[in-house]
Amino acid sequence: MHLHTEKAILDYLIKRGLPVSLAPLIRRLFVNISEGHTALELSTQEFDLFEKSGLDLLHSEYSPLSMTSKFLQTNRHAEQEKRVAKALLSRLDQRGDIVVNPINLMPHADPSQLKAIYGASLLGFALILGGPGTGKTSAAAAILMAKIKQFDLSVHDLAVLAPTGKAAVRLTSSMKSAQELADETTQQMVIPDATTIHRQLNVLREKKLVLVDEGSMVSLELMDRLLTAMDPKAHLILMGDPNQLASVEAGTILSTLAKHKAFTDSRFTLTKRHRSGHMNGLSELQDLCLAGDSDGFIHALKETNSTWVAPPNDKSLVNLITKNYQPYLVKCLDSNYSQTPEFQCLSAMSHGIGGRHWVNRVVQDLANSLGLEGRGTRILVTENQPILDIYNGDIGVLLDPISSNQTLVSFAHRDQPLHLNQIANYEIAFSVSIHRAQGSEYQDVAVCLPEPTQNSAFIPSRELVYTAVTRAKRSLHLFSSESLLRRALAQQTKRTSCLDLFLKAL
Length: 506
Fold this sequence. Notes:
Structural class: alpha/beta
Radius of gyration: 24 Å
Oligomer: single chain
Largest sheet: 6 strands, parallel
Strand content: 15-25%
């Protein structure tokens, strides 16, 4: 929430009779929202102060604030959570009656996938949950094909969505691979390419079936817009890993739905890993991270082929980064090359050794020494520009030297490149934040956890480390002190919201 908005709300409440003594609670709510919460839980004493104040503003439909039980919210967040709860619960009554044979749709499915395909194909709303490599996308593709058969749907009735362009590209590829394994009849079905949620909001009303991947990245605001845009009778499949970081914006949608008893029969958790990641210890690292077992995680890290660089050894980190980015940059000397590198650096902070800006400077220096003059530079779009079909989070690659007046930028989801000067705001993306990396996977990943400064608001967490570790498919490199790593694995993040209460109330 913007500082001017916060001040305006507080001034308005005080003018309407809010005791000045309650102003600190309102400010705490604003701080909570900035940290991703949608509510502030009040103590009994704090709640009594509100009740004794005689302020009836909270019960007015025009109030900017709302009280649910002992949770204080902005009215906007309360109304959004009510709408989301109502829209999801209403879909639990929608059921099909034509049974499909999951084996025909996914011949090599494991038992948890077969259960998900069979069950979700009959439901108006289904949650497909699981960690990396458990085959969520393959199962979801089979569910889509089952629903196409069951309800005689055309490609125009479907929307396959992800929160970011990168996640959409990966989802499209995974869907096509999964469909190739089905029976011959099913292979002839046409599933639309995935696109971002934002790109489809204006046309969702005409869709009968919507699938959303990377549900953990979907904020309350975006989920509300998605469900409001959809036909109330349209089916929804929501996929994701509830153990990952929650959305950058406020909300905790997927993790709430993953635990709520109302969705017990609509929730399908995939349990078997199908990737070869277990061969190099990545799966073990993921499990130990989720368990918060710092001793086991550190031991496993040392036993695998992972590289662990501890601060302040910046020279070793520079060598690690340049060694892994050099093959990509050398290929970029060919002016037609615009492929994604197999290596990606993820940073938990912007500044300091191992921070995004520091890593990006290291790679740019290497690129300049090779004579690239900016060609091959990866950029991250930071502002939505719907007219150009580019959105916050999309990644592009510079095809020309930066000195050129006609520098072109290639995007995986666009057939034609854009001119760099058409892009309103962007940043270099040889290193991106761990939050930004959600929805993407790379063969090799370097995770940088710089030491926060004394005044830093950064709090390392288990979810942060888990999200970073699960981006790697082949190898993992870590830059962190042991003490910071232990603190992170011991710290679980829990966002406060009232979605659970609204789901129970309806």
